[in-house]
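> tool_call: predict_assembly(chains=two)
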Amino acid sequence: MDITGRKLFVRALLEEGVDTIFGYPGGMVTDLMDELYKTEDIRLVLPRHEQALIHEAEGYARSTGKVGVCLVTSGPGATNTITGLADAHYDNVPLVCFTGQVPLHLIGNDAFQEVDIVGMTSSITKYGVTVRDRKDLGKIIKMAFHIARTGKPGPVLIDLPKDIQVQSGDANYPEKVNIRGYKPNDSVHVGQLKKAYKLLKSAQKPLILAGGGVNIGQAGEQLQAFVEKMKIPVVTTIMGKGAIPTNHPYYIGNSGMHGKYAANKAVAACDVLFSIGTRFNDRITGDLNEFAPNAKIVHIDIDTASISRNVVVDVPIVSDAKLALEKLLEWAEPKKTKQWMEEIHAWDVENPLEMRRDRGMTPQMIMEGINREFPDEAIFVTDVGQHQMWATQYLDFGGKKKFITSGGLGTMGFGFPAAVGAKIGNPDTPVICITGDGGFQMNMQEMATAVVEGAPVIICLLNNQYLGMVRQMQQLFYGKRYEATCLRRRTTCPPNCKGPNEACPPYVPDFMEFVKTYGAHGIRVTKEEEIAAALKEAKSYTDAPTIIEFMISSDEIVLPMVKSGNPMSEMILK
Amino acid sequence: MKNRWIALYVENQVGVLAKVSGLFSGKSYNLQSLTVGTTEDETISRMTICVTSDDITFEQIKKQLNRMVEVIKVIDLTNVPLHMKEIMFAKVLRCSTADKEEVFQIAKVFDVQVADIGKDSVLLECKLTERRINELIALLKGRFKMIEVVRGGAVAVESISTSCR
């Protein structure tokens, strides 16, 4: 018996095991929404903006391991998801995003709310397609879920014209799909891997660089076993944070622009850099000519195109991280690295990550407080900026803790909605959003979603009244000319302001008043003694989200820092 | 930096050409020519692509093409025995009678057809290697007042027992 496209849409979602979708209605998806009304097996979350919607789906997907599903209307509904698609593409988040489209006969007519969303997003999706024939609908949805979750995961966009939604056709949802141009790698070249292992075995100063691929491939356990067996130190990228517990004796810290001194020194000094699941982004390498100058480089990555793109490698291996590590574990034997480890520890003693206690409440103290209050299972989600770097530097990871951050695209406005999505997917796990006053304001309308959807996240808002990361660059490299970074600035301010003073206007908004309008909780913290109590109080609120607003100094900067494009050895430490 | 050729089998679907060409512009790859047509299987198109690049970029181009879902197969034609030809129409305008005679002679030497003729113009229809076409254009440009050239881009197929590129 034939069924309509809209019925097949819901059937497909159920067959794919989808129980939650993030949707915003509009003219070209009303039929799909109407069909969802009739099923009780799929929860429809209604965010307050499509950009936040897709970040919520990202947070949901990254915290649950499931595919995040979005449903938005044509035109502005679709274009509002573009930032999130790019974010998911960069950080390899499995998403299937359905966009409504005007009926086929109107495409190309500049119809109301018509845009070529597939064309616009072709470089930021793993795959995107407009359904042009009702008979292809089932196959396309099947393909979309398959492509989104296999290989290197990513976002897939399905553009669904309104007439396809109501047209009758085949009721079957295919069980399997064969795509002749898409065969994700599911094996590892043992010969190459052996070559890599021999190189590692022969090294005097071996170092493992673990990227986000280790976390996405859920290969943390294998990595840890390999490290312990071979006694090799590890550095991570920001996306690789948590791949190995941060208190592990062989873990050094993050490398890169705001990495630990010892980690960047180790990369510069190592003779074999054994890298897994990283794309050697410029934030990790700095000046490419001086990156790991003494090292032979092994690179394991599931994406052939990531290998030898930025850094020319000596042993390339195309493989899933877990698969490669499992094989490596069969061969692993202890190495003598005591002297090398001592050398690294000496660097750490020379320039540790600072934890100053002599100038009031510092961001480091806040991270320390969060570590103390959430020692076990918790999901930490950050926005983008200084607070994000402090979180990656100072938060403890290991065990059941998860870390979600916008690494590749660096999307301000990501943190809060992603945290709401994570909470919706993990209602019994504490979800802590670490954010700044700038990034939070980019999507703070989601307080409504969090309240009505019952997602009591804890928002640790580090308020320095500035767009701090840019302010930091202005402070260090632009003669303290704070153009467009002060969030208190008004037209009445003097033109050449050199920083906060007593004549400054009040801050907008007052977050404590803001939470009240939503029926959420607010705690303002100004002194370090209040940190622990505030976190405890926030934990006690399970009915609605809580903002803990930490009033920190505008002068706090993220250190160490390497200026963009400089060699990683040129770290600014003080 | 040198010229390299790729044969690309892709799904014959709406938007695939835009996606492939978008990759070249988006990643700043230097595309020289791109031709496309269907194969014996009408669900599959074959593109012949010429790019100018260094070795590392060319490797990256092949990998990036390979990871597209719509791309079925990438073949590097750079160092493969081939038959490769390009089609060109060249119109010689504002010809005197003597000019026309010369065009006919050039057509004979290059072994190309005179496809059309008028009071003061001649149309040549050429199917030559890319190098011969470049030479012919240079010759026509040097000899005549005004020419109009339409090039089709190279198409190539792997050799059976002989080759010509």
